[in-house]
TrEMBL record:
Originating organism: Macrostomum lignano
Coiled-coil ranges per UniProt: none
PANTHER family (alphabetical): DIENELACTONE HYDROLASE DOMAIN-CONTAINING PROTEIN-RELATED, DIENELACTONE HYDROLASE FAMILY PROTEIN (AFU_ORTHOLOGUE AFUA_6G01940)
Gene3D superfamilies (UniProt xref): alpha/beta hydrolase
Protein name: Dienelactone hydrolase domain-containing protein
Lineage: Eukaryota, Metazoa, Spiralia, Lophotrochozoa, Platyhelminthes
Region (Disordered): 1-22
Length: 247
């Protein structure tokens, strides 16, 4: 779901803000790490443009502070190139599809988070702290795969402007989730209804952001625009409350 929106909405850019966090290389993988909260750990899954986008890092910084969390955003393309801003929208949909199934394979990303990111994050938080997930756009799919996995180490999962989600995938999740679509994203409330019979349904969150386009929390967000910034901060606050309540 939302593949078309992912490929057509907004104008992605990089404001070149390096963020207040730091890059830590672990087992050959670059990770953007921000925040010092010991109470909870958060894995942030970047969108197709990778972890070097200034707006994405700034959102991670803001969320870490608001949610009193330590945030780790790993490079889930593992040496492969993120999709170039200059080549967006993708001029060749076949090439883009091949890239999604190889460099940006969601199943491989989910496995990498379990094998590499979770151990790194656990080193930086209290042993009793809970873990949570947040995925932007493409990152929604690996986030929900992990939310559906048996024995998942995560307590909850969320996505801002989600893409590539299906009813079958959402139906399989085993924990509270939050979905924050933009005005041009598909109806995500229908997806949440797949969980109506689950005991955690009442803790799930849906909030639609009218007036901003898909990607507004990340590469397609203009932090110099006051109206967009109002929505970005509201999304940050909504996610922070969700994580505090559930992790």
């Amino acid at each position: 779901m939302a593949t078309e929106v992912c490929c057509s909405s907004g104008s992605p850019s990089n404001n070149s803000n390096s963020g207040s966090g730091s890059i830590v290389t672990d087992s050959g993988v670059r990770n953007y790490i921000t925040g010092s909260g010991k109470g909870r750990g958060l894995v942030l899954i970047h969108d197709i443009f990778g972890l070097d986008i200034g707006q994405t890092r700034q959102f991670a910084d803001d969320l870490a502070a608001k949610a009193e969390a330590t945030v780790v955003m790993p490079d889930l393309f593992h040496g492969g190139e993120a999709w170039s801003l200059a080549r967006f929208p993708p001029p060749d949909k076949t090439e883009f599809g091949n890239w999604l199934s190889t460099t940006a394979n969601a199943d491989k990303a989910a496995k990498a988070i379990l094998d590499q990111t979770v151990p790194l994050l656990k080193q930086r938080i209290d042993p009793s702290a809970k873990l949570a997930l947040l995925g932007f756009c493409w990152g929604a799919k690996p986030a929900m795969l992990l939310a559906a996995a048996a024995g998942s180490p995560f307590a909850c999962a969320a996505s801002a402007h989600p893409a590539f989600l299906t009813a079958d995938l959402v139906r399989a999740v085993r924990m509270p989730i939050a979905l924050l679509p933009a005005s041009d994203d598909p109806d995500m409330q229908k997806l949440l209804e797949e969980l109506r019979d689950q005991p955690f349904y009442s803790r799930c969150v849906h909030r639609r952001y009218d007036g901003v386009s898909h990607g507004f929390c990340a590469a397609r967000g203009d932090r110099n625009d006051a109206k967009q910034m109002e929505k970005i901060l509201d999304a940050r606050d909504t996610l922070a409350k969700f994580f505090i309540d559930n992790a």
